[in-house]
Design a protein that fits this description.
The chain is an alpha/beta fold. It has helices spanning 2-14, 30-38, 49-58, 76-79, 92-104, 128-136, 138-141, 161-181, 200-205, 215-218; strands at residues 20-24, 43-46, 64-67, 85-89, 109-115, 146-153, 187-193, 210-213. The chain has one domain: TIM Barrel, CATH 3.20.20.10. Bound molecules: pyridoxal-5'-phosphate. Residues 24, 26, 47, 68-69, 196-198, 212-216 line the site of pyridoxal-5'-phosphate.
Amino acid sequence: MAIQDNLDFFYQKIKNTTTKLLAVSKTHSPELILEAYQTGCKVFAENRVQELVQKYETLPKDIEWHLIGTLQSNKVKYIAEFVHLIHSIDKFSLLEEVNKQAKKCNRVIDCLLQIHIAEEETKFGFDFEEAYQLLQDSKFEALENICIKGVMGMATFTDNTTQIRNEFRSLKDFFEKIKNQIDKKNVVMKEISMGMSSDYEIAIEEGSTYIRVGSAIFGKR
Ligand SMILES: *Cc1c(COP(=O)(O)O)cnc(C)c1O
């Protein structure tokens, strides 16, 4: 079926790059995910906690699950045991809750800071300055059960590829700045999560380490 062809297309695209493919399976059935899994794809992302938990419970346990959607603090406890990477940290209080729940599970949860790089008002995330301040905060340093592994961003939804490229580039520059300037035990800058079905090509060129691709793999939602 088409899923395998679509996955192969993306594996070809990221060959010889630093980019990894994250298959965004939100709204799609466990059967469809299993079909992708059986072709060798083991890394999936969901944007809602309840859906993520249900799929985690029914699907093979060697799947690496990522959370890419807005996360409410009161729901962290449901995913703390198994989530591989949370891409959508947008508040310090959320990070504190992730730390608390991770501690209960006796693990360290890897997180990305979601940065607001788009023009639209509606997108979630920190400004560059806010994110930088957070990492400097002494309260942040005390969080031993989280590790900031990088940044995530969504470009403006537009046909203007120059604008998209500039937004991705600003995220990459910010990533480099943190990597060079912040020396903390719980900050290990490795990942830049940027690029979706409509703009993954530019994201790969601009140094994305995770493209988050949904509809171009699974079809329309
Ligand atoms: C849904 C979603 C994606 C994937 O979007 P597509 O356009 O279907 O590739 C990527 N990132 C986030 C945060 C999403 O919510």
